[in-house]
Design a protein that fits this description.
Helices cover 28% and strands 29% of the residues. By secondary structure, the chain is an alpha+beta fold. The strands form two sheets. Strands 1, 2, 3, 5, 6, 7, 10 and 11 form an eight-stranded mixed beta sheet that branches. The protein has a five-stranded mixed beta sheet with strand order 4-13-12-8-9, with no helix packed on it. Helix 1 packs across helix 2. The protein is globular, with a radius of gyration of 19 Å.
Length: 273
Amino acid sequence: MPNQIEKFSLALIFLKNLTTYMQQELANIIDTATKNAQAVSQLSATHQFDLATAYEIQKLSISRRMERGEQLIGYKLGFTSRAKMEQMGVHEVIWGRLTDAMQIENGGALDFNKFIHPRAEPEIAFRVNRKIDSVIDMDNILDYITAVAPAIEIIDSRYERFKFSLEDVVADNCSSSAFVLGAWQEPQTSVQDLAITLKIKEATKQSGNSNAILGNPLVALVELSKMIVKYGEVIEAGAIVLAGAATSAEYIHQGDQVEAVFQDLGSVKLQVE
């Protein structure tokens, strides 16, 4: 007969195995929804889990894609707007992963049928030139950046009606689905206080300023380093980082030409087919 300590240990093992099974099950739901471009109910409607578990589900879901041949090439940030943080009741950014299969060539085509309800948002991208495995700050941040570029991110929640909780969106890779980069610029190129316009079929749909990204897009990379350390990740040299949206996201449709124009950084575009 097992004693009390042994019973307690067995109970912990059972709970750990149950948690691991749940994470894998939910990761499979997200991965399948992404592959099939078919919306699912919020995970939190049937399962209760915390933010740390949500990141584990995200990691497992992306791992499934990597097992199919995709490669991890970077990270994206979300909730880089102070107003959005307050709206969601959070005090830190959220982050997701970028794979090579998500990247579209500048001016290239996005296959609308591979998405559920996609939206476009203009962002600023950084390319990292050395490993980040500790918290960096504004004093040494340029030591970690080799280039900056204009970018468009395509977000596409895998949840019905684009509705989700904080934990849901993190588990869903923070809605990240695709991205396109413009020409890389020198790392010293200023990214502060830049006017940004998002156009669809040459009509301006969103206008904003790069300062909407945490007051300075460079701060986004600092915040990402904090989150990476917190969750035991490492940003490898050569990684791409999308700093977060500078305007509200805009729904896109088949036949749309989407272009983001950035003061002093140039422009970037894609065609929705």
